[in-house]
Amino acid sequence: MSSESQSFKVIGIVGFGRLGQYLVNEIQTNGTKLGLKLGFVWNRTKTEALYDSVGGDKGLILDELTHVDRYKVDLIVEIGSPSCLADKELENKLIIASNKSESSLFIPTGALWVLV
């Protein structure tokens, strides 16, 4: 199947610690083989490593979490601080954006590690 006709799942990454960096790198490096494409990445602090991870494409950097509805993604993976979604106003905005786009929003609690 050519990459032009292949359907990609577009992934948004919230959090750019070690795990976030790993996921962004894997999507950027092996995404085509995996059927994945990076939709955006957000981090509380905008570092040089963050910009480097998207190859300088500033359009892939989500500046404000409240602007998440500006990106068309299939899945958002939140791997930031556990307090990231403790803001009820932000949580409500995400739920509203999810409902508008007819998407699902899963907010897990605790850590989930999967070894591949």
UniProtKB/TrEMBL annotation:
Gene3D superfamilies recorded: NAD(P)-binding Rossmann-like Domain (3.40.50.720)
Pfam families named among the record's database cross-references: NAD_binding_3
Any one GO MF annotation of this record: oxidoreductase activity
Ranges for domain Aspartate/homoserine dehydrogenase NAD-binding: 15-87
Record-linked PANTHER family: ASPARTATE DEHYDROGENASE DOMAIN-CONTAINING PROTEIN (PTHR31873:SF6), L-ASPARTATE DEHYDROGENASE-RELATED (PTHR31873)
Protein name in UniProt: Aspartate/homoserine dehydrogenase NAD-binding domain-containing protein
